[in-house]
Specification:
about 50% helix, mainly alpha, three-stranded antiparallel β-sheet
């Protein structure tokens, strides 16, 4: 129990003793920039960056204002309908019909076997016609 109390006191001292730093620099356009990490300062401005205490952790009024802004942002986000991303264009589903063979369609009321019989008769008629035209040319 005693070691737990010592650990809690040590933790509190560490938290209050830790101070975050803010780096401030002015760019070529005269814009003042702030960051909490020196690595995010562009290399050409790092020598101009000034270390300052983090105002958001040291000033209670600013800390409260930041907390209120974060809460308002959460409430606004919660009140917005969810964003659903959809592609700009969704092509219609493809309707693929089986390839049609010329002359394969049946008139209504005819069966496939009737079509086969008709084709056989048509071929016989064409052969007969070819034989007749061949015999007329030879005469």
């Amino acid at each position: 129990m005693r070691s737990l109390a010592i650990a809690a006191v040590a933790l509190c001292c560490t938290v209050t003793g830790a101070s975050a730093l803010t780096y401030r620099w002015t760019d070529d356009n005269g814009v003042v920039n702030f960051t909490d990490s020196l690595e995010t300062v562009p290399a050409r401005y790092r020598h101009k960056a000034v270390k300052e205490p983090d105002i958001t952790t040291s000033d209670p009024r600013i800390r409260e204002e930041v907390r209120q802004q974060e809460e308002r942002a959460r409430q606004e986000e919660a009140s917005q309908p969810p964003v659903v991303t959809t592609p700009d264009y969704v092509p219609p589903p493809l309707k693929v019909a089986p390839p049609k063979v010329e002359g394969d369609e049946l008139p209504q009321g005819r069966t496939r076997s009737q079509k086969i019989r008709d084709n056989i008769e048509r071929r016989k008629a064409e052969e007969e016609k070819a034989r007749q035209s061949g015999s007329q040319q030879s005469q």
